[in-house]
Amino acid sequence: MISRQFLRENPETVREALRNKGMDDVDLDHVLEVDDEWRSLKQRGDELRHERNETSSKIGDLKAEGKDEEAQEAIERSQELKAELADVEDRADELEAELEERLLELPQIPHEDVPVGEDESDNVERRREGFEDLRELPDEVVPHYDLGEELDVLDFERGAKVAGGGFYFAKGDGARLEHALVQFMMDVHREQGYTDLFPPIPVNSRSMEGTGQFPKFTDDAYRLGGSNEEAYDDDDLWLCPTAEVPVTNMYRDEILLDDDLPVKHQAYTPNFRREAGEHGTETRGIVRVHQFNKVEMVNFVRPEESYDRFDELLDDAEEVLRRLELPYRILEMCTGDLGFTQAKKYDIEVWAPGDDMEDGPEEGGRWLEVSSVSNFEDFQARRAGLRYRPERHESAEYLHTLNGSGLAVPRVVVAILEYYQNDDGTVTVPEALRPYMGGLEVIEGHEHVGESAVGAGRKD
């Protein structure tokens, strides 16, 4: 969250951030009015306390001097001041609670270098990697959702039967591929100096607020034991939408030491999101599902080092795709597509050649976001009480948080099934993954099971 002091001193900067991020549902003038009234009441409260203390201190002297009438007047005045002070404090408490609630609705201020734009069409492509020496592809690349079912490594129908739409089974070599990717990614990031975490999967509302998921994105979350329509408490539990939430909140309301920084954690979690949106080819298969595996990198750094670390974090995520030899591009998000919590963000989009999209590369196919690398500056730190002490004798300061996916596993699976596809319908396993799949070089698929396979002509 942005600080009250920043809001008071820079209201037009905040107003511009709201405009550039396309947030027209925030009444900033009302927030400023609440803050102004709260400050006025705090000042009035101080004045009342001072007058009451002075009045009360006179009562004993007046009685000692035999001035009983004046003493009684002082007593009555003290009682009036006490009653007025109680009213002022009650109102100030109400306003402070409202102010805290309103501040949670204000977005991060974009970094001055972020390109201004309305939506994803204004994002800026910074570079492409891996297109200089592409492998030879079949004349017609079969989309992953068809190929996955044909090889019987992905099963959407049975996933929907068990859990509903948006869930799937990975089977056989498909499941091995997901497991291999997770372990491979974690090994890469371990080389880069990350410490492993295996965090809790349920997270409480306070943690969701700390990273900025709440109150803005409650509709996308999976709540445990209640409806999303109901008001939530700090201790209510939700299924983890990204490891960013538990890992960032691990040090919530704590003070780290300067010697501790930078802290670099990585965590694998299954993630759960409702992903309410349009359906069709854009989301068919495992491109947008309600449960997906992901390895997340979270960094806690000194403020003066956060943008150098931001560039390094982007490279940390890219290294996974470089080793898998998958072509990709880097996009810088414009203000309108930046997100609520980010000051600056890059997306890494892998090339999946199976489905031609209008905004895909000239080679055909489409781009799939597999990582968002973000610098939150002190936005999350203020929400979650994340501080560090530069020197033992100095006051604690808010640190900066950054995170990046390393990477979202299902979309990497999509890219592998399509980019490493062969003419005979098999899939070559990327060389970097073979040690994680028992030396397997080619995914040839499995024989389908059940009477439905006979009816579909997949089994004699």
Automatic annotation (TrEMBL):
Record flagged with keyword Hydrolase: no
Top class in the EC scheme: ligase
Keyword Cytoplasm: yes
Annotated keywords: Aminoacyl-tRNA synthetase, ATP-binding, Cytoplasm, Ligase, Nucleotide-binding, Protein biosynthesis
Record-listed ATP binding positions: R273, R274, E275, V289, H290, Q291, F292, E369, V370, S371, S372
Pathway where it operates: Aminoacyl-tRNA biosynthesis; selenocysteinyl-tRNA(Sec) biosynthesis; L-seryl-tRNA(Sec) from L-serine and tRNA(Sec): step 1/1
Residues bound to L-serine: T242, A243, E244, R273, E296, N403, S405
Membrane-spanning residues: none
Main location: cytoplasm
GO biological process: selenocysteine biosynthetic process; seryl-tRNA aminoacylation
EC number: 6.1.1.11
Catalytic activity, as annotated: tRNA(Sec) + L-serine + ATP = L-seryl-tRNA(Sec) + AMP + diphosphate + H(+); tRNA(Ser) + L-serine + ATP = L-seryl-tRNA(Ser) + AMP + diphosphate + H(+)
SUPFAM superfamilies referenced in this protein's UniProt entry, alphabetically: Class II aaRS and biotin synthetases, tRNA-binding arm
Compositionally skewed regions (Basic and acidic residues) per UniProt: 42-66
GO CC entries: cytoplasm
Domain annotation Aminoacyl-transfer RNA synthetases class-II family profile: ranges: 139-430
Residue numbers spanned by region Disordered: 42-74
Compartments, record wording: Cytoplasm
GO MF terms, alphabetically ordered: ATP binding; serine-tRNA ligase activity
Domain free text: Consists of two distinct domains, a catalytic core and a N-terminal extension that is involved in tRNA binding.
Family note: Belongs to the class-II aminoacyl-tRNA synthetase family. Type-1 seryl-tRNA synthetase subfamily.
Oligomeric form and interacting partners: Homodimer. The tRNA molecule binds across the dimer.
Physiological role: Catalyzes the attachment of serine to tRNA(Ser). Is also able to aminoacylate tRNA(Sec) with serine, to form the misacylated tRNA L-seryl-tRNA(Sec), which will be further converted into selenocysteinyl-tRNA(Sec).
Official protein name in the record: Serine--tRNA ligase
Taxonomic lineage: Archaea, Methanobacteriati, Methanobacteriota, Stenosarchaea group, Halobacteria
